[in-house]
């Protein structure tokens, strides 16, 4: 398993060192330095051979990675080559189908457009297959060979020219200008354009339309544009292994589209081409019949002209000759245009419809029938006038006139109906008939006339009402004036001569006001009270709404003021370190040169781990939950195990020889999706759907932090008990345990599933799918969206790197030292280990800066023994994260060596305890190994290895771990980043009593 790794590491290290723009000039400027590097490579090669032989000697005879079993790298090489070979066969099948389609389409009229688009599509397939082969040959050099550029031959048969004496024309090579990995986005975009052009040429045949072909090609066009837009963001990175693997994985989805198009094209050749051919033959027969009729009518018109062409005396005679000569011209034009249309229909090398001017199409398609109709009309009119010009009998002239009028009217009506039907069909796409339009128009006209009549009646009634009101006002004014006069004469209180005209003047002045208010004053007084009550209630509701709006404004102002935290109150961030591992140098992996010298030590370590891992056995089943166990996590100090379940409870177990219940954390609302211990193990967070609860190690609830959006993950800051991150959609919020938002980070179009923080606290690593491409496009229903691994700088709030992946990502975990990143996927995709390295930023060179950015490189893929449906996430195991742990839903557990990807131990599926859902490793100690698994039935099973000096006392058990932790901290030094977290149990008194609950938890709801 470890044979040959030294030379590979040395070659890769030398390539990385010389490929960097900062070290290439330094490495080859001085000849002595170059000679020194070559000598160093020779020495490293010898050391690697010696280490390989030592590893073979140290490995046990029954090691699971037997020599007869292919290695992990060999399996990946075989799987990658098989995927490419399958893709190549699919491309060849499509090319063959396009060639057959081109040959079948030659018998159709106007096939030059479909032929040219098919040839361009075949040429695009050749270029893409070459690029995909180059990409696969870089990834799997032992299985896939490169294709020489000289063998790229243009499949365009239209470029082949005839030669004399039977000589074959020379094959024309394809121009490969810019045909390199950086051209993938442009090739995808051009491929989409070629597919659309081919589809448009197919749709130029209205005689047959295949919805399956349209649907498959439109979906392929959308996905190609989506991939092209996404790949534009990786400009300059197409030679990185991560991007190359992503492009290689796209071959499966591209191949599915190609298979659909190939099958639909085959059906089109079998059914569509004969149907189109039959329709074109039928149209050609119609034109031929039309030409025959026009020719016969021309002969008839020419024959009748012999009786009238000499009559030029009167107006009638001249009119007869004018109509008959016009009829002869139109009939000849109809015959000639029919033959022209027939030739156009059967012509192969003619432009498609969208490339021809509209007047040309109308002249060829419509003019023969129109000219023939006009010829018949002119001949009929001339024949009618001919009866009067030759002084025929009254009965003959009358009958000829009547019959000519009837036939002409019928011909005009039917022609108008035919033209209107076609216009309505084109306008409404066949959903509405001409009769429906006529009925609707008639109904609208009747309705409009009725509305006009109603308006006239209403206008007349209004005039009568106004006249009656004027009469009433005049009569009332006279009555009031007479009453006042009688009152004055009776009482003699006011002089009539002085006040009468004054009162009369006042009455005239207020007459309009009285007439305006008369309608309202005649209403009963009982309506006044309800109106006042209604106005009062409306005023009260308006006042309440204003008060609520003012309260909301005050609350929003307080929240905004609370979100603005001064700089001096923000938590102190640790200084930026140049690397993630203490052994790493600037911009280089810590294992490049040091791993070669440590091969022997690794072989010995692996040989000692295998017997120890084989002693793992379940020691205790904790059956407290009543529903599925969602998540598990041991505290960093190894004292507690926290669980979360769908029964809306979380339990804290005390770790010991026999696990006991420390506390039961009951949640009133929502399901618990995750538990997270702080660095010291004194604070526990439980994640709800839209909130986070803060607990102590004793199970006391400190507070509930409500969030406005759904929380998908939580993560503590390194070495912190007060600050953590909350992942909400595309944003990550930095909170304290009081629930106060300290900062926020936006991840653009990425829907984050989970994040992890580097040990130095400078970077966030997030995984999740892409919501939309940069151009706003979404993939089709059959295509998976792009997923990405994002490295986000917390200080600059910018992306340092984006790595695309095809499979659905679930979780991300960083090792304690930060150099290794473990990615977990959904369903049956095995976990992957990525190496995070610091490289100098190319943009910083122009600014004379030495800024470094993180870059992810795929290191291992952990393949299980068989196909397994993975349960939950994969995690690091061992005190120093030297193991990788993965559980299957059936109960099988795989444990690999992190650095070599060797399968160290495999636990077969268990027949008890139900299906597994999650797994968690106790990182506090290596003696004994311990991990826990959760299952569907709510059981938590504890696995461990026997310890050499383990006693039954819980306190001594924890003290032994504390001593081990102190020894390790002395070994690693006093650096807060490199040393393991402190164990608080060693500095304060242990709590004597164990808190036990006396009630049971029922099912949810």
Describe this structure as you would to a colleague.
This protein is of the alpha+beta class. Among the domains are: 5-58, no CATH class; 72-278, no CATH class; 306-432, no CATH class; 441-513. Helix content is 48%, strand content 17%. It has 19 helices and 28 strands. The protein has a 4-stranded antiparallel beta sheet with strand order 1-28-27-26, with no helix packed on it. Strands 2-3-4-5 form a 4-stranded antiparallel beta sheet, with no helix packed on it. A 4-stranded antiparallel beta sheet has the order 6-7-8-9, with no helix packed on it. Helix 3 (31-58) runs parallel beside helix 17 (599-614), helix 5 packs antiparallel against helix 6 (184-202) and helix 5 packs antiparallel against helix 8 (241-305). The radius of gyration is 45 Å and the shape is flat. Residues 1-29, 50-68, 157-168, 492-534, 560-598, 844-848 and 949-1005 have low confidence and may be disordered.
Percent strand: 15-25%
Q: In whole angstroms, how far apart are the ends?
A: 53 Å
Biggest sheet architecture = 4 strands, antiparallel
Kindly report the spatial arrangement of strands forming the biggest sheet: 1-28-27-26
The DSSP helix count reads: 19
Mean pLDDT: 75
Structural class of the secondary elements? Answer: alpha+beta
Oligomer: single chain
Number-wise, the strands total 28
As a whole number of angstroms, the C-alpha radius of gyration is: 45 Å
- Report helical residue fraction: 40-55%
Low-confidence stretches: 1-29, 50-68, 157-168, 492-534, 560-598, 844-848, 949-1005
The best one-word shape is flat
């Amino acid at each position: 398993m470890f044979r040959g790794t030294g030379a590979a590491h040395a070659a890769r290290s030398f390539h990385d060192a010389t490929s960097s723009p900062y070290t290439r000039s330094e490495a080859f400027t001085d000849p002595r330095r170059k000679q020194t590097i070559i000598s160093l490579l020779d020495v490293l090669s010898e050391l690697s051979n010696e280490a390989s032989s030592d590893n073979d000697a140290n490995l046990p005879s029954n090691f699971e990675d037997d020599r007869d079993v292919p290695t992990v790298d060999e399996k990946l090489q075989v799987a990658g080559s098989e995927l490419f070979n399958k893709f190549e066969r699919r491309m060849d099948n499509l090319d063959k189908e396009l060639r057959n389609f081109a040959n079948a389409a030659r018998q159709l009229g106007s096939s030059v457009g479909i032929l040219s688009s098919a040839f361009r599509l075949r040429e695009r397939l050749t270029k893409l297959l070459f690029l995909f082969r180059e990409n696969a040959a870089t990834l799997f050099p032992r299985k896939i060979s490169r294709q020489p550029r000289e063998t790229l031959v243009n499949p365009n048969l239209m470029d082949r020219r005839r030669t004399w004496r039977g000589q074959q024309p020379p094959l024309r090579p394809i121009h490969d200008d810019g045909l390199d990995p950086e051209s993938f986005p442009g090739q995808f975009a051009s491929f989409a354009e070629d597919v659309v052009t081919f589809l448009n040429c197919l749709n130029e045949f209205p005689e047959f339309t295949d919805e399956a072909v349209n649907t498959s090609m439109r979906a392929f066009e959308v996905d190609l544009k989506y991939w092209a837009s996404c790949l534009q963001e990786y400009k300059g990175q197409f030679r990185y292994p991560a991007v190359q693997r992503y492009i290689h994985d796209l071959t499966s989805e591209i191949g599915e589209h190609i298979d659909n198009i190939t099958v639909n094209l085959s059906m089109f050749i079998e059914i569509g081409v004969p149907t189109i051919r039959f329709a074109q033959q039928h149209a050609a027969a119609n034109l031929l019949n039309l030409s025959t009729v026009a020719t016969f009518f021309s002969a008839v018109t020419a024959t009748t002209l012999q009786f009238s062409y000499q009559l030029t005396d009167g107006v009638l005679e001249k009119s007869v000759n004018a109509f008959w000569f016009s009829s002869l011209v139109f009939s000849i034009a109809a015959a000639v245009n029919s033959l022209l249309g027939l030739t156009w229909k059967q012509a192969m090398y003619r432009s498609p419809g969208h490339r021809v001017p509209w007047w040309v199409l109308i002249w060829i398609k419509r003019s023969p029938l129109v000219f023939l109709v006009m010829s018949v009309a002119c001949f009929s009119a001339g024949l009618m006038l001919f009866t009067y010009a030759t002084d025929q009998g009254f009965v003959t002239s009358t009958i000829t006139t009547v019959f000519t009028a009837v036939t002409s009217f019928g011909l005009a009506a039917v022609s108008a109906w035919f033209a209107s039907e076609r216009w309505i069909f084109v306008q409404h796409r066949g959903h509405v008939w001409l009769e429906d339009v006529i009925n609707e128009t008639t109904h609208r006209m009747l309705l409009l006339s009725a509305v006009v009549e109603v308006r006239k009646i209403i206008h007349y009634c209004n005039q009568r009402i106004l006249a009656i009101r004027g009469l009433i006002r005049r009569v009332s004014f006279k009555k009031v004036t007479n009453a006042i006069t009688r009152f004055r004469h009776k009482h003699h209180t006011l002089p009539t001569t002085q006040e009468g005209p004054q009162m009369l003047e006042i009455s005239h002045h207020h007459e309009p006001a009285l007439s305006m208010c008369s309608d309202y004053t005649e209403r009963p007084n009982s309506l006044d009270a309800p109106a006042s009550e209604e106005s009062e209630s409306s005023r009260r509701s308006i006042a309440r709404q204003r008060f609520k709006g003012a309260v909301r404004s005050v609350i929003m102002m307080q929240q905004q003021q609370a979100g603005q935290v001064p700089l001096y109150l923000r938590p102190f961030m640790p200084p930026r370190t140049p690397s993630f591992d203490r052994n790493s140098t600037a911009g280089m992996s810590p294992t490049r040169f040091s791993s070669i010298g440590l091969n022997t030590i690794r072989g010995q370590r692996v040989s000692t781990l295998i017997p120890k891992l084989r002693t793992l056995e379940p020691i205790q089943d904790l059956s407290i939950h009543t529903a599925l166990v969602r998540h598990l996590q041991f505290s960093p100090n190894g004292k507690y195990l926290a669980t979360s379940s769908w029964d809306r409870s979380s339990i804290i177990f005390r770790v010991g020889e026999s696990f006991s219940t420390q506390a039961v954390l009951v949640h009133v609302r929502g399901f618990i999706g995750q538990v997270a211990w702080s660095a010291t193990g004194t604070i526990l967070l439980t994640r709800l759907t839209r909130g986070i609860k803060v607990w102590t190690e004793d199970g006391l609830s400190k507070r509930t932090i409500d969030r406005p959006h759904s929380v998908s993950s939580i993560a503590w800051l390194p070495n912190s008990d007060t600050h953590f991150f909350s992942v909400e959609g595309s944003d990550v919020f930095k909170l304290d345990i009081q629930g106060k938002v300290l900062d926020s980070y936006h991840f653009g179009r990425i829907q984050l599933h989970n994040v992890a923080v580097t040990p130095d606290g400078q970077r966030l690593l997030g995984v999740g799918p892409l919501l939309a491409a940069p151009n706003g496009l979404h993939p089709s229903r059959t295509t998976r969206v792009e997923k990405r691994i994002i490295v986000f700088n917390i200080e600059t709030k910018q992306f340092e790197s984006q790595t695309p992946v095809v499979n659905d990502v679930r979780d991300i975990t960083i090792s304690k030292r930060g150099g290794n990143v473990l990615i977990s996927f959904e369903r049956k995709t095995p976990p992957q280990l990525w190496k995070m390295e610091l490289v100098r930023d190319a943009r910083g060179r122009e600014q004379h800066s030495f800024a470094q950015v993180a870059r992810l490189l795929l290191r291992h893929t952990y393949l299980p023994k068989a196909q397994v449906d993975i349960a939950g996430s994969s995690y690091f195991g061992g005190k120093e994260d030297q193991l990788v742990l993965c559980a299957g839903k059936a109960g099988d557990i795989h444990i690999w060596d992190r650095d070599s990807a060797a399968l160290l131990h495999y636990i077969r599926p268990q027949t008890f305890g139900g299906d597994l859902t999650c797994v968690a490793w106790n990182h506090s100690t290596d003696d004994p190994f311990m991990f826990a698994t959760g299952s569907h039935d709510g059981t938590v099973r504890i696995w461990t290895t026997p310890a050499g000096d383990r006693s039954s006392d819980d306190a001594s058990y924890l003290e032994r771990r504390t001593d081990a932790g102190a020894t390790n901290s002395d070994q690693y030094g006093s650096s807060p980043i490199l040393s393991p977290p402190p164990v608080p149990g060693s500095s304060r008194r242990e709590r004597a009593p164990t808190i036990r609950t006396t009630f049971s938890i029922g099912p949810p709801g």
